[in-house]
Write a structure and sequence with these properties.
two-stranded antiparallel ribbon, Glutaredoxin, 4-stranded mixed β-sheet, 3 helices, 2 domains, 132 residues, globular, 6 strands
Length: 132
């Protein structure tokens, strides 16, 4: 199974998600989206695959969301995508694609439903234990 993660190594949730994927026996394709952001077409296809609007893919915390006025409901999907392309940090993370589906993995254990052999137990960086 091919697993792809849109990953930010500075994000604990993203690091935990990647660790769960690897603990499940998969070595994913890792796209560090801050260095290699998805293009417009890929952003649209991710939103469709996840089943959310482009707006739902925006991250507010630790980003220029407020400064860019992205809370304005009048902004179109194209305008929001333009903002993500200009500031990839705006993309909510991590996003994981597998043959079982595509999901924003917040919380990180949401990835387990996408894996063929998910771990039964996992300890996150903060010490929280996830059991299935």
């Amino acid at each position: 199974m091919t697993v792809t993660i849109f990953h930010n190594p500075q994000c604990g949730t993203s690091r935990n998600t990647l660790a769960m994927i690897r603990a499940s026996g998969e070595e994913p394709v890792i796209i560090e989206y801050l260095n290699t952001p998805p293009d417009r077409k890929k952003l649209r296809s991710l939103a469709t695959a996840i089943g959310v609007s482009v707006r739902d893919m925006l991250r507010e915390k630790g980003t220029p969301y407020a400064e860019l006025g992205l809370s304005d409901p009048a902004l179109s999907d194209d305008q929001l995508i333009d903002a993500i392309l200009a500031h990839p940090i705006l993309l909510q993370r991590p996003i994981v694609e597998t043959r079982k589906g595509t999901r924003m993995c917040r919380p990180s254990e949401a990835v387990l439903d996408l894996l063929d052999n998910p771990v039964k137990s996992f300890t996150k960086e903060d010490g929280e234990v996830i059991s299935r």
